[in-house]
Amino acid sequence: MTSPPAPLSRRERKKLETRMRILNAAITLMSARGYDDVKIEEIAAAADVANATFFLHFPTKASLVAAFNEQISAKIAERLEGFDLGAVDRLELVRALVLDEWTWHAELLQRIVIDAAAQDGQSFAASSASLDALLTGIIRDGQAAGDLSDAFEPDIVAQSLVASWRASVLTWAMTGDAERARRANRQALDLVLFGAVPRD
């Protein structure tokens, strides 16, 4: 099983709660009115924080994608605790849950992803750090249990998988082709798990 993270300090918990409150206010407002029609001041007011507090957590509206991914990763980690699964099944469950979460907020996230990628590709790549960490733990545990090959470093496997998923999300955001993105999401996991070389 993936090792539990160290407990957060009171200050860290408060900071995280504020960050999530801002994110939830933003998603609620933007889902109702559209990404471009919501001002940062309105998000701050709905989250009951000062404008400066918004910018302390998010330099731009586009940077909300990192917090969304953090929230998804936390939800998934919590869900995984209820399942006694091997590493391959855990990775499959993560894949399905990530896809479900992104599908649920598809229109809004499509707009945020395009904006985030256009503003700063490096920040867009870094927005998946929480998912990288979650997958690295699953892969490390799977290697220790003998479910997965230990020929590759766990963080490299996790980053490869997340980068593939991120590329499929970006392609979906730019083209609107959700079906291709779903196939890419599935095939990326298969490629990481089974490789491209034919087996006898």
**The CATH topology of the largest domain:** Tetracycline Repressor, domain 2
CATH class of the largest domain: Mainly Alpha
What would the principal axes of the Cα set say about the shape? globular
Fraction of helical residues: over 70%
Describe the largest sheet.
none
- Structure classification: mainly alpha
Order of helices and strands: HHHHHHHHHH
Q: What is the secondary structure topology, with strand pairs?
A:
Blueprint: H1 10-33, H2 40-47, H3 51-57, H4 64-80, H5 87-104, H6 106-119, H7 121-126, H8 129-145, H9 154-175, H10 178-194
Helix pairs in contact: 1-2, 1-4, 4-5, 4-8, 5-8, 5-10, 6-9, 8-9, 9-10
Question: Which characteristics define this entry?
Answer:
mainly alpha; 200 residues; 10 helices; 0% strand; Tetracycline Repressor, domain 2; Arc Repressor Mutant, subunit A
In short:
The chain is an all-alpha fold.
Model description:
- The protein has 10 helices and no strands.
- It has helices at residues 10-33, 40-47, 51-57, 64-80, 87-104, 106-119, 121-126, 129-145, 154-175, 178-194.
- Helix 6 packs across helix 9.
- The longest helix has 24 residues, at 10-33.
- It is globular and about 55 Å long.
